[in-house]
Amino acid sequence: MTAKKGFIRRTKQREVILDVLRSTRSHPTADWVYQEVRKEMPNVSLGTIYRNLKTLTEMGQALELSYGSTYSRFDGNPENHYHFVCEECGQVTDLDLPVQKQLEEDVSDMIDGQVSYHRLEFYGVCRDCLSLAEATDHEAE
Ligand code: ZN
Ligand code: MN
Fold it and tell me: Taking ligand 2, which is a single-atom ion, which protein residues have CB atoms under 5 Å away?
């Protein structure tokens, strides 16, 4: 294969991956993206998916949300925004809250340095899990 064809193929792969990522608001794992991309490109490998997600993140077209020891999730919306994470089902939801730019300035002053970005996440139990827990409680009575 010529270098040009290789380049076109890689660009095409990255486009499909970004489309898949932007088609959902579920903040999917690399594995979920892999299953979806395979429907369009059956020969794609999981390694290719990981590599492209990393590249997209570095290019500022996606966000990687890493949750400690558990696997990363990816977000097709690269603008800083806040999330709610359900500790029961793991669902990650976007929050319609203004980003607190002032915090970054305050912290920059505090550390006498320069903050480039911040992340803010809220943890708890989502509505679905809450009503499921309530239903189970009633059954137990
Ligand atoms: Zn939940
Ligand atoms: Mn998000």
Answer: 75, 94
